[in-house]
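All the exercises in this workshop are built on plain-text protein records. A learned vocabulary of local backbone shapes supplies the integers on the structure line. Once this layout is familiar, the rest of the handout is easier to follow. An example says more than a description, so a record of this kind follows:
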Amino acid sequence: MHPSLLLLSLLLLLPLSAASPPPFQHYPLPAARRSARPLQTQIEVTRPLPFDALTPACTLPLFNHTFAHTSDLPPSAANYSAPLNCTWSNAVLHFSGAANGTQIDRIAAVWLAGAELLRTSTPVSTNDGVSWSFTKDVTRFSALLRRSNLSLSVMLENTVDEFYTGAFDVNITFLFYNIKNSPIHNRRSLNSSPRKIIKRSRRQSIAINASLELDQIPADLIIPVSAAGDEGYWFKIQTGNDAVYQGIQIPNNTYRAVIEVFVSAHGDDEFWYTNPPDFYIESNGLNITRGHGVYREVLVTLDDNVVGSVLPFPVIYTGGINPLFWDPIVAIGAFNLPSYEIELTPFLGILLDDKKHYFGFGVADAISFWLVDANLHLWLDDGPVKVQAGPIKYKNPNNCVERESSFAQLNGKFETEGERETEFSGWVYSSAGNLTTRVVTKLEFDNEISYKSNGTIVKVEHEVTVKKQIAITLPSSDTVASFSVESKYPLELKTTSVAGSGPDNYLVSTELEVSYEEEKKIDHFESEFKNKQECSGWMFVHGEDVLSGAGATSQTYTVQDSHGCYTRKVSADEGAIVSDTENFLCAAGVVSGSPA
């Protein structure tokens, strides 16, 4: 959450009646509760990286800074240079942090030469302090990580005053691994589809990249699509009419292009998927600013034409909905917010003209505020052939959004459905020959909010489905590479509020289910991933003070892919882990990364 426009509440969906309390901030719980159990490190449940068991070829401690009162200050920076005398194939960013006092969650990001490597948020901290650490595979940024004399910038806008006393100590270290000739590399070679296709003629043998995953074959050049950097390299979007642009001329030997978008919601739009329509707020005379309905779509434009869009996953920061849910297990994506990839290769016929073109962003129906930037990943042909490209088909109809509502005073139901289906294809002639890239994407949005019992019972059902297909073919129609993925983001949230005996006293109970599900097919190999959290808890509050409360979270994380199988089940209650099991074995009859 951004400190200047923070709308932090221990429970998101407080009753909307005129007598209900306003959203409130997170203050420390009674010391007796905190001292009942030893302080634990906050964790985001993820799968261990495949090379965690290996010894790094080299380690580069780079950044160490204390973010005290940094509001309105530019990012902190350090000089980055690639490690000398180190042979590596994969890179990992290790992020660790600690706070020494009371503090709310803050948004943060790490950029290298203006390109975003990581979007993250901090945990809520009490007087006892808090600590956390995590890693992210940053191999896709190898083109930058192999360079020297670059600026590594870290933005963490924090406020320290009489209420928020905590400063954040942040450390960043890069770990470099050489997995060639390791068991990991050998297993990947056996379980994965070929990563390269060879085009042969009488005089030459030229290898071209066939893998469509950024982490397998990183780009040759990365160009940031970002702001100036004085207030962070992200663009700030405050309304649905805002549009931000950056002009970029790409090299004329580019044969593939992908834009990777980073986005996070804050302020009045932090919980956009719960926002009531404006007419409901106005009709009931409610004094709240989080409105404008639930539909948000991040639009990516090229010269003012939409070339892709994102329906973002609802990342919940550690102060959101009920902070006791996220101690010590944080919400999905809270430490490592997802980025979103859009294939732009079909548009190289526009981009390869030795001219500057304008990449832009907007957020449909947004209210304040969203932080957006992107990285342009480019693959370059160093062969003797002049790269040429042209369009075949551009189909991008306007999104279709339907809304239905029925309400009487504070009780009612609001349904929103949205859909966008696009198809882009184009040819690229390079040293690899004449290849056609076809991209088909379908986005589906479904949301229902209901208010009962004079607005004291609120239920939200939200789901996004993203279906994407990419195919690269030869003039003979033979397929060089194919990629398909279907992702789902379901969320169910129910909050019940009961007024207490005294003024400004409320008992609020909340139930939450949220998950990230993905099925992926790369050529003939399939993978499955599901990450689900179930939470329940209550709070008794007085004004902006928490008098008592409880929260419990259980999480199941399962994945099956070319690296094998992994399952972890973990539960927390009253701020402590009560069970934690993990399994690296595949179920009977399941072969990881097996052909479809």
Remarks:
- The chain has one domain: 3-583.
- The chain is about 5% helix and 50% strand.
- Confidence is low (pLDDT under 50) at residues 1-33, 189-207.
